[in-house]
From TrEMBL:
Species this chain originates from: Micromonas pusilla
Presence of the UniProt keyword Membrane in the record: yes
InterPro entries on file: GPR180/TMEM145 (IPR047831), GPR180/TMEM145_TM (IPR019336)
Taxonomic lineage of the native organism: Eukaryota, Viridiplantae, Chlorophyta, Mamiellophyceae, Mamiellales
Family annotation (PANTHER family): INTIMAL THICKNESS RECEPTOR-RELATED, TRANSMEMBRANE PROTEIN 145
GO terms for biological process, alphabetical: G protein-coupled receptor signaling pathway; response to pheromone
Protein name: GPR180/TMEM145 transmembrane domain-containing protein
Length: 359
């Protein structure tokens, strides 16, 4: 259950709202390695009304690291939407179904004539190609019924290393280069008028090379966590044996030993929970996070690691201050003794004050 298997994809879901003020929205960041092209699959869903054609320029833009930094700088300078969006490395038109369409599929949209009630279809690539055709009587295959406006876009993610002139002349194959991609949804047409279209829900699946492993920016973390977990689990029996020998020899356990074991246990559990998170993430691209599940192993792992580091820091601080001979029993007895002496001292002071007043 803890074994990190190869990832199917990284998944990002959410809702975005574009208008005349906010014409662009960054929805995801994804890293690809140098072992081949990745792939991005974006599914957008919105209401049937509000995105009429001719009044919008909905686009999916993909930026690499440098271009994204320049794009953000252009926004800060107040540049026009059309101007700064030319920096995108990849731009794809988002073609939403027509708001009056009843069915869609195989390159056609089906409509119903309000006068006759008959159905006809329009070729998306050639709007002049119109013919009477019932969506339940055609030969292309099953169609999608349009109950809301939905579309899907697939884009290959590939970044190449620079080639020398000699390599280009020789016709050498180009080598892939690792990079980060930033996905942005944009509609620059809304900058020209007061527009308030309905929100859009997006589901973004980002695949690494061949769609069979984790994104490049976290690739290898599973092996690293397994190595740390096995090292921690392997060293634990030795520490327990030493602590038990100390208890048999002295009849007590040093409190610093207890603190070290507490920090050690928290850190080991943190690594185990992180492995669980990576294992689930590798299967569904979401992992064990608060926004996806009640059992937030990722959050619990971070919390336990922080507690472990706090205990370790306090232990080192106590040692630096000379705290080296205190046991668990002595700490308890001193605490109880201090409480008792405090109460006794307060009673004595009260009695002395009363005697002085009577005299």
């Amino acid at each position: 259950a803890l074994a990190p298997t190869p990832a199917r994809a990284k998944v990002e879901t959410g809702t975005l709202k574009l208008d005349s003020v906010t014409t662009e929205h960054t929805i995801a960041k994804f890293g690809t390695g140098n072992d081949g092209p990745g792939e991005l699959v974006l599914k957008l869903t919105t209401a049937k009304r509000g995105w009429e054609r001719g009044t919008h320029q909905l686009r999916l833009m993909l930026f690499k690291n440098r271009k994204y930094a320049k794009w953000k700088a252009a926004i800060a300078k107040g540049s026009l939407c059309d101007v700064r969006n030319r920096l995108a490395d990849v731009t794809k038109v988002v073609d939403l179904p027509h708001p009056l369409a009843t069915h869609s599929g195989h390159g056609f949209e089906y409509f119903e004539d309000p006068e006759t009630g008959r159905s006809y279809r329009v070729n998306k690539d050639n709007p002049e190609d119109v013919e009477w055709r019932d969506p339940n009587n055609h030969t292309e295959g099953p169609l999608d019924r349009v109950i809301h406006r939905e579309t899907e876009i697939r884009v290959e993610l590939r970044h190449f290393k620079r080639q020398s002139r000699k390599a280009r002349r020789r016709g050498d194959p180009r080598e892939d280069k690792a990079t980060h991609w930033f996905a942005v949804i944009s509609d620059c047409a809304m900058e020209n008028y007061d527009a308030h279209p309905p929100p859009m829900h997006y589901e973004l699946n980002m695949f690494a090379a061949d769609g069979n492993h984790l994104p490049a920016d976290i690739l290898g973390m599973g092996k690293l966590y397994w190595l740390i977990f096995l090292a921690l689990a392997g060293a634990a029996p030795g520490g327990l044996w030493l602590a038990s020998n100390q208890y048999r020899r002295l009849g007590r356990v040093h409190i610093l030993t207890v603190m070290v074991f507490a920090a050690y246990g928290l850190q080991t559990t943190s690594v185990a929970l992180e492995l669980m998170h990576l294992g689930v993430y590798s299967k569904d691209g979401k992992g064990l996070q608060w926004r996806h599940t009640f059992f937030a192993a990722d959050f619990a792992a971070e919390t336990m690691q922080g507690a472990s580091e706090l205990i370790t820091s306090l232990t080192l601080l106590f040692l630096a201050c000379g705290w080296t001979t205190v046991t668990v029993g002595s700490v308890t007895s001193r605490l109880v003794g201090s409480l008792e002496s405090g109460v006794g001292g307060a009673n004595a002071a009260t009695a002395a004050a009363a005697a002085a007043g009577g005299g």
